[in-house]
Design goal:
Layout lengths: L2 H8 L12 H15 L3 H4 L8 E6 L5 E6 L2 H13 L1 H8 L9 E3 L7 E3 L3 H11 L5 E6 L3 H4 L3 H8 L1 H6 L7 H11 L13 H21 L3 E5 L2 E6 L2 H17 L10 E4 L7 H7 L7 H21 L5 H12 L7 H14 L4 H8 L8 H15 L5 H13 L4 E2 H10 L2 H12 L3 E2 L21 H9 L9 H4 L1 H8 L21 H4 L9
Parallel strand pairs: 9-10
Antiparallel strand pairs: 1-2, 3-4, 5-7, 5-8, 6-7
Helix pairs in contact: 1-2, 2-24, 4-10, 8-10, 8-11, 13-15, 14-15, 16-18, 18-19, 19-21, 20-21, 21-22
């Protein structure tokens, strides 16, 4: 694993709209580091730590997850530490005989790392290998990534006692990683930045240490995927003993067992949800009239499944099934389009899936009703800290050249929510905002100090692109970001597309590169 791959493919979270990219930074990173070393120590000391950009994404019902975009200076340092010790980290993680999620270099090149087994392979493996054991422990770690104690990275690698004795040894790998990740988040010790691929690697280090502790006491038959455990036992008593010990292993790393998702079940138990079976096997005819009837039936089944399983990602899964299995007849487009837009208004977490569907059919898209749907979502979510919904709505509007009223952009800019605000400025500068819009209010926010806080990306992009002009441009005074500007580093490329345009009929491989069973 090299640092360039980790920076280009694994820095920015995959949930961001397509224009956000770290490839430009990755290409310049070596030269950036070289020039940064030439800066005086006094100037560099001002950059000891920074704060991540926050991006709020919807989960289930009203719950949300905050993912992070660390400052490039400190993310680069963390990536360099991981890349330089990749062989040692891989060897360490190979100690786990339970893990199906050990990070490996992503052979597809989509991300920097992926898991050793895909989720579907993981499920098939634990079904196959548990045939002679009728009791199953199902559990996971409560709020795993947000509750990781960064000092426990060193505990995992070196052992807790040794790590505490050598806390001041800044060359010990565990301490190097601990210091680097804390620098990304204002020296906080609780939690790690969620979103970059580095979080997958760091969390696996801790989970591996827990697996090793468990294996030292019990000959466990089972699997772990990230923090989800499936352990198979001969008796209920055996399962109870193992579960209690596993809980104590979590506690040694200051982690908690998730009571809501913990159970000991006895076979027979289904290992595939009924709704996934029904949706994935739903038949679609090529006959236009019959297909129209089936489309309505499919969405009825989708909504029913969603109502019965509100805690699951039913709608996302359903749209992807539709995308793959339905060879849509042109006569049915307007009917399907209305159903898709109604669905995305109710479930805005499916905005990327909507885009996946509309992009290859863009010549058929009714922009009038698409605009109505986008405005409905924007007005429902703007000003509430719903970064994901607002940024994706604005990006889809930009892609389809749909004009948005200035009155609907004002709350976005006033929110100072970094990702949506950048997309809003792109829309404005592309003359896709109708009416007068005063953007000067954002100017006072863009300071030299903001280049180290949770607005660093907004400050850099607006000033670097000239979307906001200031006489006292802080990029000139910030030694690090001046280097990025001089090297023409961009983190937002409005010409970037989600998928490559295709002139022929889209195939499964064109549209969604991940096999269907991986999506759930």
């Amino acid at each position: 694993m090299d640092s360039k791959t980790l920076l280009s493919k694994g820095y920015f979270p995959k949930e961001l709209p397509p224009p956000f990219s770290s490839e430009s930074f990755a290409n310049a990173a070596d030269e950036v580091a070289k020039r940064w070393k030439g800066v005086s120590k006094t100037a560099r000391n001002k950059f000891r730590e920074s704060t991540c950009v926050k991006y709020s994404i919807p989960r289930i019902n009203y719950s949300r997850r905050i993912i992070s975009i660390p400052n490039p200076l400190h993310q680069h340092a963390l990536v360099e530490a991981i890349a330089a010790n990749w062989t040692q980290l891989v060897s360490f993680c190979k100690q786990s005989r339970l893990s199906a999620s050990r990070p490996i270099v992503d052979p597809s090149g989509i991300r920097s790392v992926t898991t050793l087994k895909k989720f579907s392979e993981y499920k098939r493996a634990y079904v196959k290998d548990s045939f002679d054991r009728l009791f199953e422990i199902r559990t996971d770690i409560a709020r795993f990534f947000p509750s990781i104690y960064t000092h426990s990275i060193a505990w995992a690698i070196h052992g807790k006692t040794a790590a505490k004795k050598n806390r001041g040894n800044r060359s010990a790998l565990g301490n190097v990683l601990d210091i680097a990740v804390r620098a990304c988040q204002s020296n906080q010790t609780i939690g790690i930045p969620i979103g970059p691929d580095t979080s997958i690697i760091l969390s696996e280090i801790i989970a591996t240490a827990i697996d090793v502790m468990l294996k030292e006491k019990y000959q466990v038959n089972g699997y772990r995927f990230v923090d989800d455990y499936h352990i198979f036992c001969k008796t209920h008593d055996e399962a109870e003993h193992i579960l209690k010990y596993l809980q104590s292993c979590f506690a040694k790393f200051e982690l908690d067992l998730n009571d809501a998702k913990t159970d000991i079940v006895k076979f027979p138990q289904p290992f595939e949800s009924k709704w996934t079976i029904e949706l994935s096997s739903f038949p679609f005819s090529r006959n236009a009239k019959r297909q129209k009837l089936q489309i309505g039936q499919f969405f009825s089944l989708l909504y029913q499944s969603c109502n019965n399983h509100p805690e699951e990602s039913v709608v996302k899964y359903g749209i992807k099934v539709l995308h793959r299995r339905c060879s849509l007849q042109k006569a049915n487009w307007s009917y399907l389009e209305s159903l898709l837009l109604k669905t995305v208004i109710a479930f805005p977490q499916t905005l990327p899936e909507l885009f996946y569907y509309l992009e290859p059919h863009r010549s058929y898209v009714d922009k009038t009703i698409l605009r109505r749907a986008l405005l409905e979502i924007l007005r429902n979510h703007s000003g509430k800290g719903h970064s994901f919904e607002v940024s994706w709505v604005l990006w889809i509007a930009k892609f389809f050249q749909i004009r948005i009223p200035a009155k609907d952009i004002v709350p976005v800019i006033q929110s100072q929510d970094v990702i949506p605000t950048i997309v809003a400025f792109d829309l404005y500068r592309s003359k896709l905002v109708s009416g007068k819009l005063d953007v000067r209010s954002i100017g006072p926010l863009l300071t030299e100090e903001s280049l180290l806080d949770d607005h660093w990306l907004l400050t850099y992009e607006l000033l670097k692109k000239g979307w906001i002009r200031k006489k006292d441009n802080p990029l000139k005074d910030s030694k690090y970001f001046k280097i990025l500007q001089d090297l023409k580093v961009d983190f937002y490329d409005s010409s970037k597309r989600l998928i490559r345009p295709i002139s022929r009929r889209p195939t499964v491989r064109d549209l969604i590169k991940i096999p269907l069973e991986e999506d759930y």
